[in-house]
Every structure is written in structure tokens, then in C-alpha cells.
Amino acid sequence: MFRRLISARNPIQFGSTIRQVLASKPSNESIHVHGWVKSVRLQKSIAFAMIHDGTTPNGLQVVFRNPMLAKVLTNGASVRLTGILTPSLGPGQDSELLAEDVQVLGVCDPETYPIQKQALTTEYLRDHAHLRARTDVQGAVLRLRDTVMRRLHEFFHNNDFIYVHTPIITSNDAEGAGESFRLASVPSHPGGRGVSTENTEFFNKPSYLTVSSQLHLEAVSNALARVWTLSPCFRAERSQTSRHLAEFWMLEAEWSFVRSIDDLCDVAEASIKHVLRLESPDRDLLRSDIGASWAVMAKPASEVPWARITYTDAIHELQMSGARFEFTPRWGTALQSEHERWLADSFAHGPIFITDYPASIKPFYMRQNDDSKTVACFDLLVPHVGELVGGSLREERVTVLEAAIKQQGLDEEAYRWYTELRKFGGAPHGGYGMGFERLISWIGGVENVRECIPMPRWSGRMLL
After folding, report:
1. Could you tell me if 112 and 51 are in contact, meaning their C-beta atoms sit under 8 angstroms apart?
2. Residue 7 — φ and ψ, nearest 5°?
3. What is the predicted pLDDT for the residue at 92?
4. What are phi and psi of 306, to 5 degrees?
5. Sorting pLDDT into bands at 50, 70 and 90, what band is 196?
6. Do the beta carbons of residue 48 and residue 41 sit within 8 Å?
């Protein structure tokens, strides 16, 4: 009934968003608009205000023929405005609201309001994370997240992938890297006085915040064939780099009956290119305000095939480059951030897939290649960001998988359910994971992933 009620009446009469108002044609009807005051300009016989509600990067200009109405307005205050939408007499937008009445719903003291008009540093805004969404750039980032998420849903839906909700609490570390947050249950003291000092395992065994949805997606892909998710992940890394968060969002896709690394790369490339082709006024806002040059790379990158090279060849190119690296590139060692940046920025001049890494530096679940030295995997590196996507074929041969688990010193019993997937109709399969904040960083030209999420958490910092 509620849906019928909304669709049956004029949305402007119901109470429009500013995006809807700006898209509508001026009329003589009185409308109501809600939002926050961005600026106020008082003159002797007229007043102007700019109102935003976050639904668009553009604000709505409000004109007060009676300037006394605008004297109650201050920057940051929330308001309800009533007026007539008329053609704008000045440049910048087609329409403006001729105000007839204004109500202040939430006052904002201009003397103490932390979000002032002058330039605010990134660190200052991190210290005021509860208010930073009110800035133009952070609002643009959040709208970009929303747009990108919807584009990804569109891509996977069009390719018959099923969206799956995966557990946040798990009993194992998917990577085997020991960087998980462990959960503890601390029961209340009898009588409600304080807490008991006796810690118990709520699930009768150790449990952790998930570092990846991959293993659970693999289980579901053995029934639904093509699955994906976009969910929170947690890693207890103490890294302070611009690419790491303790809590972040990860896109992960998994599908059965795939047998080629090239097929995995094709899907990863196609999904990202589908996003890169989006048109959004926010992207230009992000580029101009942050001044990052690499965002200009994003859209052209959607028009050409992305380079692919093996890890062995990548090491050779690094060694022959003549570039000075802090860490000398050697076969059998992980690529460092400086290596990844050189490969994307200077060698490929765009996104590049690195495939077939040594088995010794990769997780147990990756499928062993015929050379018994490398595994069928890939990392996608993009300019100025480095690694964006990592994926692999999964080891479907149960004996090889069990040997890898044992060799890496993992708890064989904890992964018994995982190996059982191979015993009961298991199929060749593979997939990949992509850091969502890193994708936003690259597309929007945002220098640090801490500005690509509403409430960032990283080692040593959780303000709210």
C-alpha cells in the first residue's frame, strides 16, 4: 500500500529530494524541500541560500525576496523550505526555489561548528569523522561508492551470478596468515555487577572476524555455480600505508567449471570496465578537489585490453629496468609495493595482470601448475594504487589440497569440511577478491583508502 501511495501522488507534493527538484520542470505549485544550509548571502532587499541534501553534488539555490526569512539560517542547520520552483535568473542551474516559508529543524551554532568554509586538512576531517560526510569531497566519495556498487550488481546479475551473504564470524583464517581478529565472549557477572574474569569460547572453539568470504563462497559455488558477495572483512594488520584498513569491504566472486587463468582475468577485467564506463558528475569533483592525476587513467583504461605477464617475466623486467628499488626483485619473493607501482605505471602504463606466482609465497588453496613450482593465480595491478584484485584457480584435486594444508602447517581437522567439497561432486572452480575501497580510490583519484569509507578503522585509530 505504501508503494502505491508514493507512486500515485506527485513526488514533489510528497516531499522531494533536491535531485528530484532539480530534474523537474518549474511550475506554479508550492513544494517542500528538506536539506542542510551550505551558504547564506544576505543583501538589503534580497537573500540567497544554497541547500544540499546529499542526493546530488549540486545544491538548490533558494531566493528570499523577504530577506528577514533568511536571517534564521546558519551554515550546517537543517531546514524545511516551502516555495515555488521557478526558472533561474542567474547562471549555474536551470531552476531555483522562490522561498515562501522556512523552518529550522536543527540549529547549528556557526561559532562552534567544526565544518567551516575554509580548507580543512585530511587529518582534521578524520578527527571529525562524524561530520566529514558534510564536505563536498566526502559526499562525492559516498555517492561514488553507491554508484559503483549498483554497477557491480548490474554486471554480475547480467552474467548469471547469484549474490550470497557470507558469514562475518568464522572458525578459520582463509589466508592462513595469522592476521585475524579473534573473538572472545565475556559473560556478565551474576547479579549484573561488572563482568566475569572467566573468558569462554562462545562457539566452543576459537572464532574470528572474517578476513575473506572465499572459502564459504566456494562451498556455495558447488551448488549455485556462479556466486559473488560484497561484504565487510577484517584484518589485524598494523600497516599504516595508504592502502590498508582494519575494516574494509571486499568484493569476491567464485564460479564453478572454470579451468583457465585467462578466463578469471577476463571476468575481473570485464567487471571493472563495466564500472569504469559510468558517467558521474562526482568524478570530476573528486579529481579537481583532490588533484590526483591517476583518476584520469580510469576511464581510458576501459577502452583497451589490459596487459598480462607471468610473475617470472615480471621479475625479469624489474631486474632489467635499471630502476632503483629499496627491495631487490628476486624470483621466489613477493612483489613489493614499489615493484607493483613500477610494473603498472612505468612498464604497462596502465592495468596489468601478473600471473603464475611461486607456490611458496601463495596460500594453500591455489591450484598447483604442472611445473610443481608455481600456482595458477593472478594479481591485477593498477597505476598509482598497486594491487587491486587477487584471484586463482582453486585446487580441486583433494590429495594435492590435503598435502598443501599439511605442508603449510595448518589444522587439518579445521579444513576437513573444505576438503570434503572435493569429495562430494567437486568441480574445477576459481575466483577472485577485490578491495572495494581500493577500487574507489583508483576511480575517484582519492589518495588514501581512509577517505574512501565513511568511518575508517586502522591500527591505533577508531574514533567512533
Report:
1. no
2. -75, -20
3. 74
4. -90, 145
5. low
6. yes
Element spanning 137, H or E: helix 136-158
- What confidence category does residue 187 fall into, taking pLDDT thresholds of 50, 70 and 90? low
**Close Cβ partners of 31 (under 8 Å, ≥ 6 residues apart):** 12, 13, 16, 21, 82, 83, 84, 85, 97
Q: In angstroms, rounded to a whole number, what is the distance separating the alpha carbons of residues 228 and 291?
A: 34
Beta-carbon neighbour count of residue 283 at 10 Å? Answer: 20
Q: How far is CA 119 from CA 40, 141, 290, in A?
A: 18, 17, 12
Q: Compare 16 and 399 and report the one with higher pLDDT.
A: 399
- Residue 56 contacts by C-beta under 8 Å, 6 or more apart in sequence? 17, 18, 19, 22, 281
What is the rounded distance in angstroms from the CA atom of residue 339 to the CA atom of residue 352?
A: 12
Phi and psi (nearest 5°) for 187? -70, 150
C-alpha cell at 193: 555487577
**Distance, first Cα to last Cα, the chain:** 38
> In this model, does residue 242 exceed pLDDT 90?
no
User: Measuring CA to CA, which residue among 222, 260, 263, 258 is closest to residue 429?
Assistant: 258
For the record, the C-alpha cell of 61 comes out as 539555490
| Single-letter amino acid, residue 58 | N
pLDDT of 176 higher than 60: no
Q: Is the pLDDT of residue 55 over 70?
A: yes
pLDDT tens profile 266-279: 999 999 999 998 77
Q: Are 220 and 226 in contact (CB under 8 A)?
A: no
Number of H helices, E strands in the chain: 14, 15
